[in-house]
Specification:
The protein is mainly α. The chain has nine helices and five strands. The strands form two sheets. The protein has a three-stranded antiparallel sheet, sandwiched between helices. A two-stranded antiparallel ribbon has the order 4-5. The longest helix has 30 residues.
Length: 262
C-alpha cells in the first residue's frame, strides 16, 4: 500500500493514513496513531506494524481495532482492578458523549412517562419560557461548545484555555438567565463535552454520531436512537483493518483475545 501512494509530498503521518486505510469513507479510523514511544513499542510487540514519518511525532499503527481506542498505556502500569474500572468508565463515557443529548431530547419530547414525576416537574419549570423546542435548544448548545473548542485549539494555549473556560461559563449562565436555554440542557451538554475527552481516539466519530443520534432521537424518539445504534454496529461489523475485523475480538468472538477487552 505504501508503494502504491502517488503524491508530491508527505508533511505529516495523517497524509499516509488517508491514503492506505481500508475504509476512507467511514467515520471510524481503521489506523491508529500515537506519540508515546511505549505505546508504539507495545503495539509492535503485539504484532502490529508501526509507520514513522520524518518530521512528525505521530506514529501510525496497523491493524487498528475499536477496543484499542479504550486502552491506555497506564492501564498496564496499575493494578488490574483499578485499570479495569477505568476502562469501563471510558466505554460508558463514549456512550454518554454520543447519546446524552439525543436521550434527553427523546425522553422530554416523546417519552415523558419514563421520567420520574418530581424530575419531570423540575424539567418543566426549568424550560418554562424557553422559546425553542428541545431539539433546537440542544443543537444551539452543542454547536456553541464546538465553536468554543475550536477557538481554544486555534489560539495560543494560555489564551485558548481562558477563552474556553470563561466563554463556556459566561455564555451558559447568560443563556439560562435570558431564558434562551434551560438549565438541564446546559448540564446535559456539559456532561456530553467532558465525556468526549475520555476517548480521544474516537473523538471525530463521536462528534458525527452525536449529531446523527440527536437528529434521530428528535425525529423518532427512542426508536430512532435504537435504529442509529444498530446502524452504527452493523457498519462497524463490516469494517476491516488490514485483514482484521474492526470489532475483533468481539466479532468474530475469540475468548483467548478477550482477556484484554474490559
Amino acid at each position: 500500500r505504501l508503494k502504491g501512494i502517488s503524491t508530491d509530498s508527505i508533511l505529516e503521518s495523517g497524509y499516509i493514513e488517508q491514503l492506505i486505510e481500508d475504509a476512507p469513507g467511514s467515520i471510524f479510523a481503521t489506523i491508529g496513531y500515537t506519540e508515546k514511544p511505549d505505546v508504539a513499542a507495545a503495539k509492535i510487540l503485539e504484532g502490529r506494524v508501526a509507520i514513522l514519518v520524518d518530521g512528525t511525532p505521530f506514529v501510525l499503527t496497523a491493524p487498528f481495532v475499536l477496543l484499542e481506542s479504550f486502552q491506555a498505556a497506564e492501564d498496564y502500569y496499575f493494578r488490574p482492578y483499578f485499570a479495569t474500572m477505568a476502562r469501563i468508565i471510558r466505554i460508558i463515557g463514549f456512550l454518554v458523549t454520543i447519546m446524552a443529548p439525543a436521550f434527553y431530547v427523546a425522553t422530554t419530547t416523546y417519552h415523558q412517562e419514563l421520567i420520574p414525576t418530581s424530575l419531570l416537574i423540575t424539567f418543566a419549570q426549568a424550560r418554562e419560557g424557553v422559546p425553542f423546542p428541545a431539539f433546537v435548544e440542544s443543537l444551539i448548545m452543542i454547536i456553541t461548545f464546538e465553536i468554543l473548542r475550536e477557538a481554544g485549539i486555534r489560539l495560543p494555549r494560555p489564551v485558548g484555555q481562558a477563552l474556553s473556560i470563561v466563554g463556556a461559563l459566561v455564555i451558559g449562565e447568560s443563556a439560562v438567565s435570558a431564558g434562551i436555554i434551560g438549565a438541564p440542557m446546559v448540564i446535559v451538554v456539559a456532561i456530553t463535552a467532558v465525556s468526549g475527552f475520555l476517548v480521544p481516539a474516537q473523538n471525530d466519530s463521536a462528534i458525527v454520531l452525536r449529531y446523527l443520534m440527536l437528529i434521530l432521537g428528535a425525529t423518532f424518539g427512542g426508536f430512532g436512537i435504537t435504529l442509529g445504534l444498530i446502524s452504527a454496529l452493523v457498519h462497524m461489523s463490516s469494517l476491516e483493518s488490514f485483514g482484521y475485523m474492526y470489532l475483533t475480538p468481539m466479532a468474530p468472538f475469540d475468548i483467548e483475545d478477550s482477556k484484554d477487552t474490559v
